[in-house]
From TrEMBL:
InterPro entries: MptA/B-like (IPR049829)
Transmembrane segments: 84-105, 125-146, 158-177, 246-268, 280-300, 338-368, 380-409, 448-470, 477-495, 501-533, 545-566
Major subcellular location class: membrane
Domain of life per record: Bacteria
Protein name: Alpha-1,6-mannosyltransferase
Pfam families according to UniProt: MptA_B_family
Keyword Ribosomal protein attributed: no
Amino acid sequence: MKGSLRESNSLKEPFTDCEPALDTLPGVAVGEHPDQRAPEPDVSGTSGDTVTALPATAPSPVGPRRTDPLNAAETRGLDVVRRFGTVGSLFLALGSLGAGAAPVINPVQDLPVLRLFIRIPTVSLAIAFSGMGILVLSWLMLARFARPASARLATSGQLARTVAMWVAPLLLIPPLFSRDVYSYLAQSEIVHRGMDPYQLGPAQALGVADPLTAGVTNIWRETPAPYGPLLLRLGGWLAPVGGNNIVAGVLLQRGLAMVGVLLIVWAVPRLARRFGVQPATALWLGAANPLLIFHFVAGAHNDSLAIGLMVAGLEIGIRRLPVRVKGDSPPPLAKGELLFIALGVVIITVGATVKIPAVLALPFLSVMVARRWHGRLKDLVWAGAPMALLFGVVLTAICVGTGLGFGWIGATASTPGLVRSFISPTAEIANLSGVLGITLGLGNHTDALVPILGTLGNVITAAVTIKFLWASFKWRYRPIIGLGVSLGAAMILQINLQPWYLLWAVIPLAAAAGTSRFRVVATVISAALPFLLPPTGGTFDGRSYVLPWAYGAAALVTLGGLAIVYRLSPLLLSRTPPASPAPRAPVDVVS
C-alpha cells in the first residue's frame, strides 16, 4: 500500500492540497473548465531549472484530465446499471421488513400484507441478501463509467443521481446490519431528561421497562455513551419530536446520518478535482460505496455525520489557498483566505464533537496551510498554533454550551473496547493468545490482553500519524493521503472494528489517491465487507441452518438479474475498456 500511495502523487512531490476549486481559479469563469483556456505556460522544473509562478490567467496544472461525455451505448448502459441497483435497493427494503434489526415492539406486525415478511424470515433474509448482491454488482459495473483512464466518463451529476436512486428506497425502512440506532435513541432521551449520558446507561437512567431501553443491545444497556456531546444534544432536541415512537425516532436519526451523506457527496468531488483525481471516480468509490449505502443510510450510523463534517471542513479550509509552483514566492493573502481556513477548522471541530477521530484532520490541514507559505518549520508552527487555539475554543464552547461537559472523552476511550470484533486484528490476537494460554496450561488471559493491545494500537496509530504528518510536511505525500492512512490505522487497530469504520479511510483517500492499486484494494474490501454482518444486526444462534438456504436463493436471484442486465446492455459485462487519450504531461508543482 505504501508504494501505491507514493505513486498516487504521480510527480516528484505532492502538489494539489492548495489548488482552488475550478470555479474559483483566477480568470476562470464559473462553470468554465480550465482545459478550455489558453495553453499552459512552461513551468518545467523537474531537472532543477527555476520555475516561475503561474500567471493569473493560466489554467490549473493540477486539475483532472478533461474527458468526453458518454456515448449513446454507454448512456444506455449507465441507465441499466442505475435501474439494476435500484431494484437491489427495493429488494433490500422488502427483506428488511422480516430480516432487519427491527424494534422489540415491531409495528410491521400490525400492517396487512407487509407483516407476511415477519412470518417468513428465511425468505425475507434471502430477499435481503439478493438486494445486497444486486447492489454490490451494480456498483462494480458502475465502475466502468468512472475509470480515470477512460476517454469518456460519467459526470458528477450522473453519479450523484445514481446514488440518490439507490439510496431512496432505504430511507424509510427498519435499521439494517446493526442495532446501534436504538442506543442513539436511548442516550438522546437521557440527555432530554437532563441526566448525564456519560455516567448512566439506558437501563440505569430510563429503566429496563422503558421501550427505548428495550431496543438496546444487552451489552450497551448499562454502559455510558461513547459519542460526542453535539450528537447527543442534537438527539436530545429530537427526542421529544419522536417521543416513545421508535419508528419516528429511527427516521429522525437516519435524517442526521443523511446530512453526513449529503456533505460527503458535496465535498468529495470538489476535493478530488482539487487533487487532480476525476470527480466521477471519487464519487464512485466514496459516495456510491456499498459500505456507505448499507451502513450510513440503511444502518443510520452517526459516523456518516462526523465524516461528512470532516471532509466538508477540509474542502472549505483549503478553498482559497493559492496554486503555487516550485521557485516562486508565496503570494499575499487572498480576500477571505484566513476566514475560510478558520471556518474549515470550526467545521472539523464540530465533526470531532460527533465522533472524535475527525480531529485527525486538523494537523494535516495545518500542514497544507504551512505549505502554502515557504513550508518551513516555523510556518507549520504559525499555522498550527492558531488552529489549535481555535479548536480549543470551539470544543470548549460546544462542551459547555451543550451542558454535557468533557465526560465524553473518557467514555469514548473506554466504552467501545467492551466489544471484540471478529474482524479486528487486535481482538483476534487477544483471542488467539487466550487459546494458546489455555493450551499451555497458563490460563485464559484474553481479558487482560485486550486493554494492553488497545493501548498498543493507539501507540501505533500515533506513530503512523506523526510519520505521515512529517512526510507530508516534507512534500513526500499529499497531506490528505496522510490523513486517510492515519485514519485507516486508527480504525483497523481498534478492538471493536466494524466494516463501516473503514470508510473513515476510504472516503478521504478516494478524493486524492489516484492509483489503480489503491482502487483495486478498496474495491475488494468494499464489496466483501458488507456480507460479514447479517441484515438482522444480530447472530443466528440456534437457527444458523437458515443461512445456506438464504444465500443459495439469493445467489440464484442475483445470477438471474445479471442475465437480464447482459441482455439489456452487453457492454456492461464486456472486458474491453474504452480507449484512453494520452495523459497530461506532469508539472512539478509544490502546493
